[in-house]
């Protein structure tokens, strides 16, 4: 096989180069990729292959060659799956970061019409993360500090989501106030994604979650109903934004308030894990039934966002899970993949999934089943306590 | 307390942790032996005095035949079917589930439950609603459907050569309006008890354990109460199960399978299932005499036409044409009936009751008894005017589980 020969050749070169490179020392960061070709370490080897594929992806991006972009996006995923367990075991922090950029590339590569700009952004970020992994030292966080580290990592994620919530709510609110129904419909789902990912944080601030996210049946007095879903109804049921300005203003105020409060938010590890379960429960109760987005039928977008949010908790908890629960981590990892694969069938873009009402009973049950399997496994992450 | 009685595969010395670990290794690292996995032990009875002694009645789990077949019928029954999860291609994971289920069933039928982890951040292993209710004659009966062996013409798990001889997909029967989503399935579980809550608890915990390996497909709930030692009545008001054989020799002829089956299936039986919706309002407006003509028995005594006592044999020549009992007897075959009645609110479109019979029968040769009987009845049963078959199933019920073994072990090993 051609590729095998190439491998042997590379390996030979690498062995020959070994003393030279060691002499050069590791101070030069640019040479790090060459250095690691010399190693037998499967993580370094795998990462080098990732880099090669990522370079090919970037070349394809430059040429704007959609077929090649999709091809390499998928190959990067296959390569990642082939050695990610080793990364998760030894470099859990880097692992989570790579997943964060690699997964969206893969998801986009499976779409008929991928978002090239987004792939570009993630591919660039991925290069940085791969380089970091090549030079990363295998440091073990002390078990006593692991949980604090996990919470810090998760809060960082949640903060980013809430920042994005603010950023994406602004244009939505603007469109609502301008009375532009079509534009507002288009801009509706994006802030929903960020909100649903970080919902456990919002739920910690008493009235904010209901003010932002209540559904019509959550309130006893419909005239006091505010938030995304009130505007959702105006957009899809009434097809008119008349009188919606005050709701748009209130939504913006509440979202900004959430951002302010979340900056100083403290979270215990137990609450973090409980939050992941809440997200999956949310997905399994109100999203899978089509109740959450009953006017826009964009429930699958929210569903995926809830699962993403819980995955962030899982990723933050990997170092702790690695202490005696690697097998569980492995099962959870596989189930997140199985779930995402199921959802890809209905994904058109990050903000557009199949209309909930177009799904058959069997399709809903299939998604529900994968979600249940995920919840059952995620409930076991409490073993880290 | 008899220690032998408490034997479960995992506790007993001969088959135990080590064997289980071997199994788990066989099934690959990720095998879900479950939240109540290897380390789970049995919880001992709490406050004995507080429990009604009647509910402490137990049916042994480890026996020659599976319990719940010729066992005196309990007041409540659940019948449920499961499908193997699409992600499962590895028979070891199914074996692991059956080991877990066997352990759990052997625990539950004693009125016990799995203990919870000391880590209170984890979900509880047992759902707790049957605490202090006792065993209540709980039985848990496991079976396998045709689709467990063959699906879309494929031998799913390399077990098709071990397929029970009489196990087929259910053939088409006249006058049926089947809902596939509540019919058939890869695995079936019948759970019966004298207390409904005890039966539900058992099923719920089996479902919880199985998720990811086998997922619940459908579940039906039934009830049936009769005076002690007498034949109970179904919702038509007639006795149901009069012709059941009680003598063990006769049961060997009618119910239990023998040497013509693959080894693992001998001493087992087949569960035939029909969910029969009764058109209750129409029936209730039918005359008393016509009701008797339709069934072919006297409503009060249960005696066949031309007889005075319930258990006197049916005289075919005295049967009204197309009567239910007459047609069923014409096949010359016997089945062992173990049906439950069901109610499920009203039918919104008409306001009529949604009620009927979960017809369950056990027989060793369903292709010669159960199915021919359905064919004859489907074509011309006078009762068809008042019923509609809405769900179906045929499941092989393997022999009883021996101590230190697990359900269907000899199918796999």
From TrEMBL, chain A:
In terms of superkingdom, the source organism counts as Bacteria
Pfam families for this protein: Peptidase_M75
Imelysin-like domain: residues covered? 150-376
Predominant place of localization: other
Q: Where in the cell is it found?
A: Cell envelope
Compositionally biased spans, kind Low complexity: 26-37
Entry annotated with the keyword Signal: yes
Q: Which InterPro entries match?
A: EfeM/EfeO_iron_uptake (IPR050894), Imelysin-like (IPR018976), Imelysin-like_EfeO/Algp7 (IPR034981), Imelysin_sf (IPR038352), Iron_uptake_EfeM/EfeO (IPR053377)
Give start-end positions of Polar residues composition bias.
38-49
Q: Where is this region: Disordered?
A: 26-49
Q: Does the keyword Signal apply?
A: yes
- Signal peptide boundaries: 1-25
Alphabetized UniProt keyword annotations: Signal
Question: What family does the entry list?
Answer: Belongs to the EfeM/EfeO family.
Q: Report the protein name in the record.
A: Iron uptake system protein EfeO
What organism does the UniProt record list as the source? Sporolactobacillus shoreicorticis
UniProtKB/TrEMBL annotation, chain B:
One family from Pfam that matches here is: Dyp_perox_C
UniProt KW keywords: Heme, Iron, Lyase, Membrane, Metal-binding, Oxidoreductase, Peroxidase, Signal, Transmembrane, Transmembrane helix
- For the keyword Lyase, the answer is yes
Which reactions fall under this protein's catalytic activity?
A: heme b + 2 H(+) = protoporphyrin IX + Fe(2+)
Instruction: Give the transmembrane ranges.
Output: 21-42
The Dyp-type peroxidase C-terminal domain is annotated at 231-400
Q: Where is the Dyp-type peroxidase N-terminal domain?
A: 66-223
- Cofactor(s), names only, from the UniProt record: heme b
- Cite the PROSITE patterns for this sequence: DYP_PEROXIDASE, TAT
Specify whether Iron is a keyword of the entry: yes
Q: What is this protein called?
A: Deferrochelatase
Annotated organism of origin? Sporolactobacillus shoreicorticis
Q: Taxonomic lineage per UniProt?
A: Bacteria, Bacillati, Bacillota, Bacilli, Bacillales
């Amino acid at each position: 096989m051609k590729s095998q020969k190439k491998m042997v050749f590379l390996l030979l070169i690498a062995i020959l180069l070994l003393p030279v490179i060691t002499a050069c020392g590791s101070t030069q960061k640019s040479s790090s990729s060459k250095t690691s070709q010399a190693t037998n370490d499967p993580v370094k080897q795998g990462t080098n292959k990732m880099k090669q594929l990522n370079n090919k992806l970037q070349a394809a991006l430059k040429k704007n060659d959609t077929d090649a972009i999709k091809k390499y996006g998928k190959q990067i995923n296959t390569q990642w799956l082939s050695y990610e367990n080793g990364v998760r075991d030894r470099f859990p922090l880097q692992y989570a970061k790579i997943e964060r950029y690699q997964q969206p590339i893969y998801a986009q590569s499976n779409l008929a019409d991928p978002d090239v700009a987004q792939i570009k952004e993630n591919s660039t970020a991925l290069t940085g993360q791969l380089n970091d992994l090549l030079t990363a030292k295998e440091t073990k966080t002390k078990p006593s500090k692991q949980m604090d580290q996990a919470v810090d990592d998760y809060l960082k994620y949640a903060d980013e989501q809430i920042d994005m919530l603010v950023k994406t709510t602004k244009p939505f609110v603007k469109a609502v106030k301008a009375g532009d129904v079509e534009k507002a419909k288009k801009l509706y789902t994006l802030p929903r994604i960020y909100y649903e990912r970080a919902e456990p944080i919002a739920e910690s601030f008493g009235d904010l979650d209901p003010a932002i996210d209540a559904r019509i049946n959550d309130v006893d007095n419909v005239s006091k109903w505010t938030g995304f879903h009130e505007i959702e109804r105006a957009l899809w049921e009434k097809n008119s934004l008349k009188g919606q300005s005050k709701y748009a203003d209130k939504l913006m105020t509440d979202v900004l308030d959430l951002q302010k409060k979340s900056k100083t938010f403290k979270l215990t590890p137990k609450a973090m894990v409980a939050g992941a379960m809440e997200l999956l429960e949310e997905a399994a109760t109100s999203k899978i039934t089509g109740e959450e987005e009953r006017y826009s039928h964009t429930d699958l977008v929210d569903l995926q966002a809830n699962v993403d949010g819980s995955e962030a908790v899982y990723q933050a908890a990997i170092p702790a899970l690695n202490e005696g629960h690697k097998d569980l981590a492995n099962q959870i990892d596989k189930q997140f993949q199985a779930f995402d694969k199921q959802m890809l069938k209905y994904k058109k873009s990050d903000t557009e999934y199949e209309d909930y009402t177009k799904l058959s009973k069997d399709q809903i049950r299939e998604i529900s089943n994968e979600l249940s399997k995920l919840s059952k496994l995620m409930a076991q992450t409490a073993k880290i306590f | 307390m008899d220690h032998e009685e408490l034997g479960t595969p995992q506790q007993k010395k001969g088959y135990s942790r080590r064997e289980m670990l071997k199994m788990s290794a066989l099934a690959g690292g990720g095998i879900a032996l479950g939240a109540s996995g290897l380390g789970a032990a049995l919880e001992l009875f709490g406050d004995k005095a507080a429990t009604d002694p009647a509910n402490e009645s137990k049916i042994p789990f480890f026996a020659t035949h599976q319990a719940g077949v010729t066992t005196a019928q309990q007041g409540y029954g659940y019948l449920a079917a499961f499908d193997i999860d699409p992600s499962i291609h590895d028979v070891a994971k199914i074996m692991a589930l059956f080991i877990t289920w066997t352990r759990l069933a052997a625990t539950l039928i004693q009125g016990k439950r799995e203990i919870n982890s000391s880590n209170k951040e984890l979900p509880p292993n047992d759902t707790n609603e049957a605490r202090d209710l006792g065993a209540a004659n709980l039985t848990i009966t496991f079976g396998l459907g045709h689709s467990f062996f063959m699906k879309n013409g494929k031998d799913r798990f390399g077990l098709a050569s071990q397929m029970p001889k009489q196990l087929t997909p259910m053939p088409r029967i006249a006058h049926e309006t089947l809902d596939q989503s509540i019919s058939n399935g890869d695995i079936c579980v019948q759970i019966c008890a004298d207390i409904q809550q005890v039966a539900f608890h058992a099923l719920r915990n089996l479902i919880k354990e199985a998720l990811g390996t086998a997922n619940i497909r459908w579940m039906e709930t039934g009830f049936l109460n009769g005076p002690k030692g007498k034949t109970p009545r179904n919702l038509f008001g007639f006795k149901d199960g009069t012709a059941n054989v009680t003598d063990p020799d006769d049961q060997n002829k009618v119910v239990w399978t023998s040497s013509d089956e693959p080894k693992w299936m001998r001493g087992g039986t087949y569960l035939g299932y029909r969910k029969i919706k009764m058109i209750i309002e129409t029936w209730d407006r039918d005359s008393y005499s016509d009701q008797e003509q339709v069934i072919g028995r006297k409503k009060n005594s249960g005696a066949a036409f031309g007889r005075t006592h319930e258990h006197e044999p049916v005289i075919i020549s005295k049967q009204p044409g197309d009567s239910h009992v007459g047609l069923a007897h014409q096949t010359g075959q016997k089945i062992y009936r173990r049906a439950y009645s069901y109610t499920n609110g009203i039918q919104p479109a008409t306001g009529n009751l949604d009620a009927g019979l979960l017809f369950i029968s056990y027989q060793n040769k369903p292709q010669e008894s159960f199915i021919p009987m359905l064919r004859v009845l489907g074509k011309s049963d006078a009762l068809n005017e008042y019923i509609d078959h809405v769900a179906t199933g045929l499941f092989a019920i393997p022999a009883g589980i021996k101590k230190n073994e697990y359900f269907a072990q000899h199918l796999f090993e």
